[in-house]
Amino acid sequence: MSVLEIRDLHVTVGEGDDAKEILRGVDLTVRSGETHAIMGPNGSGKSTLAYSIAGHPKYTITGGTVTLDGEDVLAMTVDERARAGLFLAMQYPVEVPGVSVSNFLRTAATAVKGEAPKLRTWVKDVKTEMAGLEMDPTFAERNVNEGFSGGEKKRHEILQMRLLKPRIAILDETDSGLDVDALRIVSEGVNRTRAEGDVGVLLITHYTRILRYIKPDFVHVFVAGRIVEEGGPELADKLESEGYAAYVKDSNEVASAEKAAAEVASA
Amino acid sequence: MSAENTTTTLAGELFAPGVGAQAGPPTTPAAGTGSAGQATPGSHSHGGPARTGSPAERLTSTDPDAFGVPTGREETWRFTPMKRVRVLLDGAPSDAHPSWDADLPDGAELSRVEADDPMLKGLPEPVDRLAALTRQRADGATVVRVAAEAQLDRPVTLGFSGAAGDDVVWGQLVVEVGAFAQATIVLDHTGLARYSGGVAVLVGDGAQVTLVSVQDWAPGAVHGGQYDTVVGRDATFKQVVVTLGGDLVRLVSNVQYSGPGGSADLYGVYFADETQHQEHRLWVDHAVPHCRSNVLYKGALQGEDARTVWIGDVRIRPAAVGTETYELNRNLVLTDGARADSVPNLEIETGEIVGAGHASATGRFDDEQLFYLCSRGIDAETARRLVVRGFFADVVQHIGLPELQDRLMGTIEARLGALPGLEEQPVEVPA
Asked: Which of A76, A142, A180, A235 could form a disulfide bond with A80, CB atoms 3.0-4.6 angstroms apart?
């Protein structure tokens, strides 16, 4: 049983006078066995939340706390956070030339588990999980994310989640850019992980489409750097029919936050 | 330089009749020159700033005096530390020629030809004074012949281990691969030497040839070399240059095509520390239709005054319709004070091509790569090692000889171990 607690989290990007506040007091609790969906318009700070929890150096925490089972996540290095049980499936996974997928996965598993996995069971596990995600076995010999299609990159992210077995998994727009088949395959992978173990899932998405495959227990509407409404799955249905208009109208703050975030995204 | 010099002939006339002579790179200021810690975006110098319609032809000659004595201000020498290359340029003629330790599979023959052998007259000509001196003083050539249609069951390996003599070792090697043969040739340079060597590779029509040149010299070695390849009709040529050792290594690699349908992949890796200057100059001359070339060179530098130079010249002449070419140079600066020069030049004289492009970047570790690896629990030191190892493996894996690849990656990893930041904590990267 794990719990990720985010309290009054404030995050800026940029230095000195150019610093822009992107997160403006985020409160969120994710427990094992729960699936939370964070939904919001572009530039609302959803991805900043994900990267801040994972420890990306571009973001500066200016206030608030993040704890995992009481441990101070913000005091940990990026790799320590992963070893503590946090996992971030990235929206734009990075190419690492010359490093094969199999070498990468084994190195990561060794780091997270604290010892090298037994070769025989490991090879079998990788094969099984790759088959589950309908990935060709030759995939393991390719360089990490190099020349991968959008769908292959996302499957590779979910493959890592399956093998590293995190306590809390954050999926940052894993659904974006996927065709229906890939969306189904990726969603099934997430659902298997939820069904098998005590994992908490924080699903960040712009669209409601993925929520037809992955059923959230909680839905949070994220606008201008904070959560503005919370509810159950019915809130996603409301967003699907009405969009975000009700949350973003007449807000200058929103416009400036979106602009700032857009600048960050394009930087 | 005088193009009127009567001893000057143009290699293009010999191998691509009727398509014009070899041309030199534009003598415009270097673009895309990056130095330590400074990321340089891809630079563009298509044809130079002022197109005159007729770029300067490149001087080639077997007569050293046709080039004059370089001062270091010449385009071809301006990146080279002249003091350190003088041991070769001012080197006396000697009887020292490389004694190749050869491993020859069936189908490959090793022989020696005299200086007056007609074969030598047909080779692409030297492009600078050092190469011309080398041709003259090599006193003939060592020749590797692979019979037409031969399929070698293992690579031809020629090892040259320098014995620390003061004399400059002058050498000329000719690799002649018959039509439709498949061959891999490995030149393995080790030990301590002052060596100036010419290498000519004649790839027969439809042949598939890989030439690997490993510069695994001991500290103090000085190596100058000109590599010329003539790619036959529908032939495939792959060159992999790996420069790790030595004090100064300056290699010029030229490629030309003698018929349509030829393909050339030029790969290179280099790794310079504070005592080293490593210079790789490439020149791909597309003068016949429907050929392709692809250049990928990657280098890393560590230590103050580590210095690398990469010049990538590609010319697509008017006759070379249907050309496809791309060149890429990446430099990874591991410590302060190192300097990597990277100068791609692409000159396009016909619009009817499949594609042409180049890119060059010099910078430090990619923070996004490190973040990605660390976010999977991998500690920062192991992540850096993986990234650098991968940076090199990306090119080394093109050699296609696992044993040699393992040896080279082992050497590279040992060198990385000397990085202070990487030494702090011992790490194990599972294979």
From this structure: A76
Q: Considering only CB atoms, which chain B residues are within 8 Å of A82?
A: 374-378
Which chain B residues have a beta carbon less than 8 Å from that of A107?
A: 378, 382, 386, 429-430
Fill in the DSSP letter of residue A214.
S
Higher pLDDT, B2 or B383: B383
- From chain A, the residues in CB contact with B386 under 8 A are 96, 99, 103-104, 107
Per residue in B40-84, pLDDT (tens digit) is 333 333 433 333 344 557 899 999 999 999 999 999 999 999 999
| pLDDT tens by residue, A194-246 | 999 889 999 999 888 999 999 999 999 999 999 999 999 999 989 888 888 88
Any domain includes B382: no
Q: What is the pLDDT of residues B13-33, one digit of tens each?
A: 233 332 223 333 333 333 333
Candidate from A72-76, B17-21, B177-181, B297-301 with smallest mean pLDDT? B17-21
Nearest of B302, B365, B366 to residue B338 by alpha carbon: B302
Short-list B267, B338, B281, CA closest to B80: B281
Beta strands in B258-385 (DSSP E): 263-272, 277-286, 292-301, 307-316, 324-333, 339-348, 355-363
Give me A151's structure tokens.
């769908």
Residue of B nearest to A112 (CA): B377
Which member of B367, B372, B376 has the closest CB to residue A164? B376
For residue B397, the chain A residues in CB contact (below 8 A) are: 98
Token match 């010319």: residue? B315
For B49-188, where are the alpha helices, taking DSSP H only? 82-89, 118-121, 129-137
CA-nearest residue to B390 within chain A is A98
Kindly state whether residue B233 falls inside one of the protein's structural domains.
Answer: yes
Average pLDDT, chain A: 91
Q: Which residues form the domain of B67?
A: 3-364
Tell me if A45 sits within 8 A of A79, measured CB to CB.
Answer: no
* pLDDT tens column, B235-264: 999 999 999 999 999 999 999 999 999 999
Q: What's the number of domains chain B is made of?
A: 1
Q: Is residue B23 part of a domain?
A: yes
Which residue in A94, A98, A106 is closest to B372 by CB distance?
A94
CB atoms within 10 A of CB B100: 18
